[in-house]
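hey so i finally got around to running the thing on that chain from the lab meeting. sorry it took forever, my laptop kept dying and i had to restart like 3 times. anyway pasting the input first so we r on the same page abt which one it is
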Amino acid sequence: MIAWDHVQTLRDDIGEDDFHEIVVVFLDEVEEAMARISACSGGEGVAETLHFLKGSALNLGFRTFAKLCETEETALKTNTGPVNLERLTDTYAQSRRVFLHGLQLRLGDVG
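ok and heres what got predicted. didnt touch it at all, straight out
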């Protein structure tokens, strides 16, 4: 679900303080993007938001959530289905819980 080796490398590369800031910004931006998707009627802007979420998630090691964003983005672009908002929300929430818990266990408390 989380690419912990990527998370550790990122933290090592940028330092603990900057890593903490990136985590805070990432979580805020994802929450805002998820709210935008929830508020959209139809697909206008949703594919772009999913693409943004995918890239952001990959940068912070949210492997499963990034893959789902990619799947949902492709479905929208190929008209093979609407966004499964519940699945997207649930996957993000689970990934977030695992990530924050894992940070405490693996890297020490960053918050």
